[in-house]
Structures are given as C-alpha cells and as structure tokens.
Amino acid sequence: MKKIGWIGTGIMGAAMVRNLMKAGYEMYVYNRTKEKAAPLLEQGAHWCASPGECAKQCEAVVTIVGYPADVKALYLGEDGILEHAGQGTYVVDMTTSSPSLAEEIFEEARRRGVHALDAPVTGGDTGAKAGTLTILAGGREEDFQAVLPILEAMGKKIFYMGGPGAGQKTKLCNQIAIAGALAGACEAISYAELSGLDAERVLGAISTGAAGSFQMSNVAAKGLAGDYTPGFMLKHFIKDMRLGAEASESCGGSLKVLSQVLKECGVLEEKGLGEEGTQALLKYYRDRS
Question: Which Gene3D superfamilies does this entry report, sorted A to Z (predicted)?
C-alpha cells in the first residue's frame, strides 16, 4: 500500500502525514478547512474535495478528527468513507472515540468487504512530530499486520490489543490513568506554593522518585512555568474523560477520580480555557487555594 488517504490535518494529523510522506507514501488529504492542509499540499500531498474522494482512490484511509460524531459522519454518513471505499480497502480511525462506535464501523465495513481498525494514539504533538507515538489497535489481527508498516511510520510502540473496539477501550484506560496523575501533580504544586516552598525545586525533587510521571515532568511542569500552550487541548481531554465515564457506566462501573477531574476541567472550560493545554488544570487548584 503506497496511496494513503488522510482525513484530519490538525495539530496531530499534519505531523503524522509528514512522517508518512518521509516514509515514501503518496498522501491524499482532506480537511474541513482547506487552509489547515495548505502546508502539506505545498510539501507534496494531494488535495481531495471530500472524504468520499479520498476513499475512492486510495488503498488505505486514515482518520484523526475531533469527536465521535465527526467519526460517525465520516464513516457512516452520506457520501462517507464506507460508501465509496472499494472492497479490500483498509480504513483506520486514530481518533480517540467510542468503543461501541468502533464496533459499529467494523461491522458495517465487514459487510462491505472493507477492513476496519480502531487505532487511537498517545504521545501528544511531540510524539506525532517525532514519529514516536504509542498506537493501540483493535480489529482483526491479520488486518493489523497488513497496515503495520503504515503505523510504524508514525509510532515506535505499536500494540495489537484485540478485536474491534479494543484499541479505543485501551486508550480510555490511558486517559483515565492520566486524569489521576495530572490532578495529583497539579495538587502537589498547589500545596508546595501554599506552604512557602519553591515549587519548581519541589517538582524537580519529587519527580525523580516514586511520585514521578510524564504528567508531572512534562505537563504540570509547563503550567508551573506559565506555559499553557496546548500539546493536548483541555477540551479534547474533557471529551476523552466523558467517553471513559460513559464506557465505564455501560459496564456497570463507577470511576470516582475520573468524575472529579472531569468536573474540575469542566469548570475551566466554562471559563473559556478549553483551548489551553491540559496543564491548565493547575489553575483550578490555584483558584481554590
């Protein structure tokens, strides 16, 4: 497979397309706002006027968009990917989305003779640019093996997690774990500041021990430095946490820590901070100190 269709050229998607182009793939791209794809077109990608056009002329189509509703419209809507994809086409959704929607897309794709995988990613914009993303895939294992060279152009740690929806379920586990780790780091910084300690020095010390985490050293630390530029937008994290809460409830579970962090982030979004990075959670704890 050398002709790849790509839908979604935001912060993550554009960087991932560049890595595929570096690996020698011929890229056909679509984005709702063409201007966001302009730098990729200047670098040699081909423009498609619609998702359907991407699907018609490519051996594989990859999507990474905002919300489950966007994914559903792209795959199952009128003039969507599955309506135009030929038999034997591979479709890979890398959006963090609903496990049940991934299963629905898989079944409809199978009915049409199309190979569908859900393969959300973790690693943020830094990992997308460096080609070091962690990729969590669900679907048929033989389909995973067929698209593995494509995934390897974008990520360094690539895991086959199981059947349809397994990639999305695993990504939700990741986001659930991040919620607690990020909140704990932000709360620790807040206490350090209140107690009169040098919070930067504290973070440098405790991040080397049992409390250390990526969220502490790379995300909360940015907030402490006053940098709220998004590597991952707060509004998208809120979406992910809601998906985790809904998926847990469907299994009869109750995620109390996740629910609390979701509530805290919701307060920040209401204040207009949804497009800041997730390190903006530090502002919640400072405001309540």
Answer: N-(1-d-carboxylethyl)-l-norvaline Dehydrogenase, domain 2, NAD(P)-binding Rossmann-like Domain
